Amino acid sequence: MKIIEVEVVSTSTIKPSSPTPSHLRCHQLSFIDQLCGHTYNPSVLFYPPESENEKLNVVEISKKLKQSLSDVLSCYYPLAGRLNKNNSFVDCNDEGIPYVEARANCNISDIIQNPILHQLHKFVPLDLSGKVDLLLGVQLTIFNCGGIAIGSCISHKVGDGLSALMFTKFWAAMVRGDEDGKSKMLMPHFVSSTVFPPRDMSLVGQGVDIPMKNLVSRRFVIDCSKLEAYREKYAESDKLKDPQMRRPSRLEALSALICSRFIAATKGLNAEKRRYAIAHAFNLRPRIDPPLLENSFGNISRTIIQHLDLTSCCGDDSTTYSHIVKQMRDLMSSGKEQEFVKNLQKGIDQTSNFFKEHAEEFAKGELVSFNFTSLCRFPLYEDFGWGKPSWVSTNPLPYKNLIVFADNDSGDGIQAYVVFEEEDMARFESDKEFRSFLSPPSESNY
């Protein structure tokens, strides 16, 4: 395994090109913002050189990135501020964000062809665990071949994954010089604290600590054609029992596949003592009445969780999968219910309550939750003016049993970033049925 070395060449501070007006200096956190931890949503866009003999003009690119970033921060002014210690607001003081230039000791193809997930943090400038009060950091990395990577990380305390992606989309439009970059379709709307009013967090209580031991991350690329055949197979089976039963969606089918193969693969690892729960993160923007714009900034998404009932399974794998698909459908449907949103607006969070109620079981490892989130069909592959990236890394944070889905660049596969405990992962990634869904030649990446 090659060790990638990334050396910082320079660090500068980028400030907004125009000062934040006094009436906007205090950016109030929403109730959902308050529930989120101050960790970072990392994203790295990899751009290879235009050809073997023509490298990207790094000096000109860096200049454009800095100038445009300063303008972008005038619109995304909370990101240039500092997080208040009492978990209630951001001081929009225009102190700015770090902009790092670095050099890697490899070619960009070394990364794209065989991504090593635990080394990808070297392409973003901040510790992902959120040990500083910065809300955004940007890093430009230059490779030996002349390719570049643009890494950014936005604090989860102020924005969800879609907020981070819309920031990148807006920034890319500004670099390209598109007038659309300043249009109402991309300008951020800071409405989350109005929709989800902040609460006294001393009344809400602390979160539940789930044991994190020997966590490992893997990236699997799922072949969509194989997943499609799987969806059709189980749709036909279900329709024999219920003609009204619809075919499972891609997310339902893939989520159920990972759950069922994990359960099958880890039998014997104290599995008889385990119970399971399934959780999916939902974008709440279209579910609010009236719906919010896509470019509404903040944590406007939330996870819904429920127990996974396997008591009526016959023990064979196909029955287990079928049961999980049905319950995944129920979970995904509940995420569309406006009642869930209305409860959040009242300060009632089903997910936090679930974890508190079962805190002891989680602590003992008797209750295992599968935590899914999806970036599929979101704007990942942004063109800053020198072509679209060859790959976008959305490596998740090391949270136990976290699974993040994202489209690949060609659209014929889904990247599944999976975080399991080491012993569970060893069994899961060796499962023959799961591996039959993977795209060759690169089936998984460490």
From TrEMBL:
> Pfam families attached here?
Transferase (PF02458)
- Kindly indicate whether the keyword Transferase belongs to this entry: yes
Protein family per UniProt: Belongs to the plant acyltransferase family.
Q: Which Gene3D superfamilies match?
A: Chloramphenicol acetyltransferase-like domain (3.30.559.10)
For this protein, the record's InterPro entries field holds:
CAT-like_dom_sf
**Keyword Transmembrane (UniProt):** no
> Under which name does UniProt file this protein?
Transferase
Provide this UniProt record's keywords sorted from A to Z.
Acyltransferase, Transferase
Q: Which PANTHER family match?
A: F21J9.9, VINORINE SYNTHASE-LIKE
Q: Name one GO molecular function term.
A: acyltransferase activity
Give the originating organism. Answer: Trema orientale (Charcoal tree)
